[in-house]
Design goal:
7-stranded mixed beta sheet, about 15% strand, about 400 residues, 15 helices, 3 domains, RNA-binding S4 domain-containing protein, TlyA, methyltransferase activity, Rossmann fold, Structural Genomics Hypothetical 15.5 Kd Protein In mrcA-pckA Intergenic Region, Chain A, Hemolysin_A/TlyA, RNA binding, alpha/beta, 3-stranded antiparallel beta sheet
């Protein structure tokens, strides 16, 4: 008879006992009855029944039960031990005081593959559940909090993350807490690529950020905020209509106040007026939020805005895939934004093309404004009907 190792199923074990008892009955006229280990017998181990007739099917109340030694060897679950072990413990064993084998039992996949613990551990009640594993990207986020999830997932796909000496390319790969995780990649300067866009504007347009209190609208991962802090900003209010996207490095920084689930268009006040505002907005025009921005700024303040033509142009001017390819549309959008912002009491000090394109490949622009005079309150709260119609 072929030996069935520890990977055999519950039903294979049942079949093995049926064949063994049938053969023993033919040769000796009685059913083979396994004897329990001495230690278990001394302590009142599980009960066994001798039947010399025809009750040889494993599972009958009077049928012989498998020996404890074989159960331990095969590591197969038989019955759930009620009372002092819960199903969450992941341990199943032969029920001691009563046998449930004459009742129909439906085994789930998890129950069939569940390992039986050692008898000493089982008797002591000190059952240690299997340690849970986590996704590789989640483990990396916990160990490398200065990086965003996008960066980490990108590195995993590129094969730059090593787990216990092996390269893993799947972000959902299950990893234990004790695994040694290494990242062999170029360390980014900012938490996301948006920081490089703002850095280009600060350096090329000569914007002074040192010691200023700033408002970063369209916070997202926090690229603009990270850039402002590294260039000397004293404090940053980060506003975003979404939530849960901010990198841990930014969220935990004492110089940052994260304001999520907030539309800048309806933000009326902050704990203090700001010296500098940066705008990185999507799916809304800059001119729509500018009245609210003016109310949050000091009388002498600075504005840096990222102009995205795909959200400023008319629908007919946006090509396939949401990409604006016509240079004349780019120029028209720039002129519209510059004029609209200047009408609110700002002066344009220059603009540049972003060194990085948008996520979909759109060309973007960065414009630098300074607030010259205190705009009239009426003009702050109202944009002309013609401008609003063009934006919508």
């Amino acid at each position: 008879m072929r030996f069935m190792g520890p990977d055999c199923t519950f039903y294979q074990l049942e079949h093995l006992y049926n064949l063994t008892n049938q053969r023993h009955l033919q040769l000796h006229g009685s059913v083979a009855v396994p004897s329990p280990p001495a230690k278990l017998a001394e302590t009142g181990g599980d009960r066994y029944y001798i039947n010399q007739k025809t009750h040889i099917r494993f599972g009958h109340p009077n049928a012989p039960q498998p020996s404890m030694a074989l159960l331990q060897l095969s590591k197969l679950p038989l019955f759930r031990r009620c009372g002092w072990l819960s199903s969450a413990d992941g341990v199943f064993f032969l029920s001691k005081p009563s046998y449930l084998s004459h009742h129909p039992v439906r085994w789930t996949k998890a129950q069939k593959s569940c390992p039986v613990r050692s008898f000493a551990t089982l008797k002591s009640g000190k059952v240690i559940p299997a340690k849970k594993k986590k996704r590789l990207d989640e483990v990396c986020l916990e160990k490398f909090q200065q990086y965003s999830r996008n960066y980490i997932q990108s590195w995993i796909i590129q094969g730059k993350v090593i787990v216990d000496g092996k390269v893993v390319t799947k972000a959902g790969h299950q990893v234990s807490d004790k695994a040694i995780v290494e990242i062999k990649a170029v360390i980014p300067k900012y938490v996301c690529r948006a920081g490089h866009k703002l850095e280009a504007a600060i350096e090329k347009l000569g914007v002074d950020v040192t010691g200023k209190v700033a408002l970063d609208s369209g916070l997202s991962t926090g690229g603009f905020t990270d850039c402002l802090l590294q260039h000397g900003a004293s404090f940053v209010y980060g506003v975003d209509v979404g939530y849960g996207q901010v990198a841990d490095k930014i969220r935990r920084d004492e110089r940052v106040s994260v304001i999520e689930r907030t539309n800048l268009r309806y933000l009326t006040e902050l704990p203090q007026k700001v010296d500098l505002v940066t705008l990185d907005l999507s799916f809304i025009s800059i001119l729509v939020v500018m009245p609210a921005v003016v109310n949050l700024m000091k009388e002498e303040a600075t504005l840096i805005t990222l102009i995205k033509p795909q959200f400023e142009a008319r629908r007919s001017q946006v090509g396939g895939g949401g990409i604006v390819r016509d240079p004349s549309v780019h120029q028209e959008v720039r002129q519209k934004i510059v004029k609209g912002v200047e009408d609110l009491g700002f002066q344009c000090n220059g603009w540049i093309e972003s060194p990085l394109k948008g996520a979909e490949g759109n060309i973007e622009f960065l414009a630098y404004f300074t607030k010259t005079t205190a705009a009239d309150s009426t003009s702050q709260l109202n944009i002309s009907k013609e401008t609003t119609d063009n934006v919508s």
